[in-house]
Amino acid sequence: MKKIITALALALVAVGTTAALAGPIEDRQAIMKQMAGPMKIAVGISRDTASYDAAAAKKAMDEIVAHSEKFGTLFPANTGPGNGIKTQATAAVWSDAAGFKAANAKFIADAKTAGAAKDQASFAGAFKVLQSDCGGCHKVYRGPAS
To answer: Of the ranges 36-45, 53-62, 76-85, 133-142, which one carries the lowest mean pLDDT score?
Structure first.
């Protein structure tokens, strides 16, 4: 009976460890999917020169900021490529952690700048910078699923 209980306990620890490692990856993927909505709204606002809705622009950018602040915390050790884990994060996230954190901080600051825009032209310019941040980060820190 003790052997069965010990085996079950070890199995639960193994499952818990696997789930703990999968959590941040699943959360990262979910956040990227959740950012699609506010990004789509922001693209529309950046292109609509006829009417500018500052409240809608701020709301979209506030959502992006909230997602990005959480996203930057979801890269603990052993959740990168290798380790038998399937992820699109490249090893550079961990080998250049300072650069990754700086890129995320810049993205957040640029989203706040876009959210504070008072007119469509200012928003469009700030949003273009934000889109460039996306591409730059993906180029270095994101690759095909490993």
So the answer is: 76-85
Under 8 Å between Cβ of 52 and 120: yes
Place of tokens 């180029």: 139
Compute the C-alpha angle 97/100/102, nearest 5°: 110
- Tokens 């499952």 correspond to what residue? 15
Mean pLDDT of 126-130: 98
Q: Which two three-digit tokens encode residue 48?
A: 């609509």
The three-state secondary structure class of 143 is: coil
Per-domain boundaries in the chain: 2-141
- The CATH T-level fold of domain 2-141 is Four Helix Bundle (Hemerythrin (Met), subunit A) (1.20.120)
- Which tokens belong to 124? 């469009």
- Token look-up 């009417």 returns 51
Query: How many alpha carbons lie under 13 Å from residue 107 in its C-beta half-sphere?
Result: 26
